[in-house]
């Protein structure tokens, strides 16, 4: 059944304003157009809703019974359309973002704080997950946006580079290499390294870049999560090669990070979205804010962290 909203709106305006002239002016249409709308509705219903002469307009018995429902229909549609227009013009609404843990704990909160100032009242659901899980969350519609690592190209996904995150050498302050201003890869062959599992997108990204330079680094220990590696380093079990964003400056007393050079290797952080899909106004505003505020192509600083 096709609902004649224009006809219902015309009927309500005429009934409330008491005549065709005022109703036409209110709806910004001609009286002829308004009359046609009402006639079309009455023809569809096969009922007379208004009795009108040259001197007056009066609701029929059926019209009086229908008016409350008609007003409710017009009010609901008007409010719904107004809400959508408000969402579009002001970026209002809610959305879900999937994000790798290192970005979720540092860079993302800073971005969300700025977003909350510009778009107060919006609700964001955060899925903190591995790089592969971030990609799958966006691919399967569980999240509109993802912040993660580049993965195998997928025809349904689009990746926009957000920043670059250099790999650094993490150790305790008593480590033999801890006084260095920087560490070169050849220094690490005899270090007790804590390696990230090959199940991790971080490890795959690092291995690809190391292979380009003919560098092969193996670890005495292997873990899956960066947070576990940091815990072992902090306990003095060994040292680790991790992205600089893994640990905030000064977050762990006695633990430092040192720039790795010869070569400097960085992981790329990307924003992931589905191709050929329209983001909600809230998600679109967040993505535009991320790229607008200078993150695209930027690099997280490589300064070493002094012992706290």
TrEMBL record:
Gene Ontology MF terms in the entry: DNA binding; DNA-binding transcription factor activity
Alphabetic keyword roster: DNA-binding, Transcription, Transcription regulation
Domain of life of the source: Bacteria
UniProt KW DNA damage keyword: no
PROSITE patterns named in the record: HTH_LYSR
Gene Ontology terms: cellular component: cytosol
SUPFAM superfamilies: Periplasmic binding protein-like II, Winged helix' DNA-binding domain
Location of the HTH lysR-type domain: 3-60
Family per similarity comment: Belongs to the LysR transcriptional regulatory family.
Protein name: LysR family transcriptional regulator
Organism of provenance: Parazoarcus communis
